[in-house]
Amino acid sequence: MIELSLHILDIAENATRAGARLIHISLNEDSRNDTLTMEIRDDGSGMSEAVLRKVLDPFYTTKKVRRFGLGLPMLSLAAEKAGGRFTIDSREGEGTRVTAEFKLSHLDRQPLGDIAGTMVTLITGNTGADFVYHHRHDDQEYILDTREIKKELEGVLISHVEVLKFIRNDIDAGLKEINAEA
Amino acid sequence: MAKLKIGDLKKIKEKVHAETALREGDRRAKITVHMGTCGIASGAREVMNALMQAIEEVNVTDVVVTTSGCMGLCSREPLVTVEIVGQEPIKYEYMDANKMRQVFKRHVLEGEIQNPFVLARGAEITK
Asked: pLDDT digits over A18-64, tens only?
């Protein structure tokens, strides 16, 4: 993956396939400690201890159509090679939390990239689920919550092209406002 | 929401309500962009962005866009399935933003299947 936002899209798509109704995506750019922390938390079906031990094995997958599962191993590798670390916690029936920490200034850290494109893709493909995007940059923060948007829309589909355009612009403007640099 | 302008959402809501409401049977097509790890790594999100932009430009409201997981043909990603209502689904392989714009314009809007990009015709397995 050439951008962190592509990892986010990948992990969050996994969450929706695990039946998640609410997915929290948070990014924390901490320039004082020189860290970038990314967390994806869902309320999907979760995993057993036995499965959890195998998720970083690229030749382990729950899918039947192919014999490998590279999503989590690639994110784990990306974090490690950028001076950070990867953690995953999960409980069956409760959900999963994936955390990747990076050294913010590390040369090998991928850029965040088109996070607005990631969020719009997630929302379009999973209209039944809700997403919260929380981006913190030192003391400033930006939050997008699809539950609030849906409440305002009163029946208009969140996947309507006008709404998606609005969301994309809101994220771009919001990140500019908090001077997001990742 | 830090930036959310409630007024803007209200305007969108009124505008959409003013347009003729979309009924179930009025759908022209469903387009599925395959969004597994393989698809994402090979550019599916850019294909999705291009598709949304193309839809926005012509302002059609009867095309449903969705995503699905990996279907095991990772080497041919990005894959896109176009299902025109009443016709068999067409799967396009090795898609990119330009091909997506072409498929949307020529196939979805004008009804002409773009044979050079076709992987297969027939049933779709989603998620």
From this structure: 999 999 999 999 999 999 999 999 999 999 999 999 898 888 888 88
CATH number of this structure's domain B25-121: 3.40.30.10
pLDDT at residue B93, rounded to an integer: 97
Higher pLDDT, A51 or B1: A51
Q: Are A11 and A72 in contact (CB under 8 A)?
A: yes
> What is residue B127's predicted lDDT score, i.e. its pLDDT?
44
Interface of A with B (CB under 8 A): 1, 6, 9-10, 13, 17, 63, 65-66, 69-71, 74, 114, 117-118, 120-121, 124-126, 141-145, 148-149, 152-154, 156, 159-166, 170, 173-174, 177-178
CB contact under 8 A, B48 and A124: yes
Contact B35 A6 (CB under 8 A): no
Spell out the domain ranges in chain A. 4-176
Neighbour-count burial of A30, counting CB atoms closer than 10 A to its CB (0-12 exposed, 13-18 middle, 19+ buried): middle
pLDDT at B25: 55
Question: Would you say domain A4-176 falls under CATH 3.30.470.20?
Answer: no
Find the closest chain A residue to B33 by CA distance.
A125
pTM of the entire predicted model: 0.92
Q: Where are the domains of chain B?
A: 25-121
- Rounded to whole angstroms, the Cα distance separating B27 from B65 reads 11
> Taking chain A, what is the end-to-end CA distance rounded to the nearest angstrom?
16
